[in-house]
Amino acid sequence: MMRRTDNLVRPNVLKLVPYSCARDEYEGSDGTFLDANESPYGPLNRYPDPRQRELRQAISRHKGIPAQNIFLGNGSDEIIDLCFRIFCNPGKDRAMVFTPTYGMYRVAASVNDIEVISIPLNVTFNIDLQAARPWLQDETLKLIFICSPNNPTGNCMDRETVETIIREFKGIVVIDEAYADFSGKPSFAKRTGEFDNLIVMQTFSKAMGLAAARVGMAFADIDILKYFFAMKPPYNISTINQEAALQRLYEADIVASRVQSVIAERNRLVSRLAGLRVVEKVWPSDANFLLVRVKDADYVYNTLASGKIIVRNRSREIPGCIRITTGTAEENNRLISELEKIGI
Ligand SMILES: Cc1ncc(COP(=O)(O)O)c(C=O)c1O
Fold first, then answer.
1. 0.90 surpassed by pTM
2. Domain containing residue 285
3. Where do runs of H (alpha helix) occur along 133-178?
């Protein structure tokens, strides 16, 4: 039976016969394995589990989301790229983003020859529904990316607006919740059963502290995820990285207390920064970073960098602004004392 979402999928993807690897054909873990042309000598001689069953089960328990509704990518960045490759015909289809936002949506669109419709966020850094609405019925618009909390503005998008877009849009809505653990606000990850056109992304790179391991998560209806499983390279998450992520899930208490420390430090930074002469404005943040307007962003960036404190200069996208990631108390103190010295 054709589903609504099947009609959004590229014809070549609908016809795709996925590669069937040795580990797909025989699923047991005991035996004499002479099937995958691996070395017989350990310890990392065997290919990883292509379906990451143990890790997906552990995420399922951790999040209360069925394992069949979880897909893992080599970072969220692989998932973003797969969204384009599954749903967008190069040179024909379009995707929408709300700017300023995370730059990879645009890069992945360019790689896949997809035009991006860019709708500027309003003055409160929220989605301008009136500006987006005329596009929601456009047949060439296949993907809408909503980054919430948004990078680099730090705020969550208004939930009602997000829901309106999911309901009115005929294509796929991707909500990127990379920073959700710092927000204290409800996630959309458990609501994919309600909306067959919704993909929610999260990652092990931020609150879980595993950016080096490259493990991104997508939560969606099985009728969407089946295409992701078919399209991905068979062994997209290495055994080492699967084990690192699994281990981190067993340390959930440590992760939770580190998230609390980062939130406390972020809040302390907000008040300390607000009292500095060089700082003009600090926006509230639902993430682990702050958007800060300073008197001269290039000068502040360069001065900090010469003292080996590296922040992100975002002044090309948002005039006068830098983005500061929350560090440890010690790192944040160094930042504040360097900023105190800047005499502009
Ligand atoms: C909004 C957003 N999504 C995704 C990512 C990257 O996630 P990953 O490390 O899982 O590729 C970032 C990284 O900065 C981000 O800001």
1. yes
2. 253-341
3. 159-168
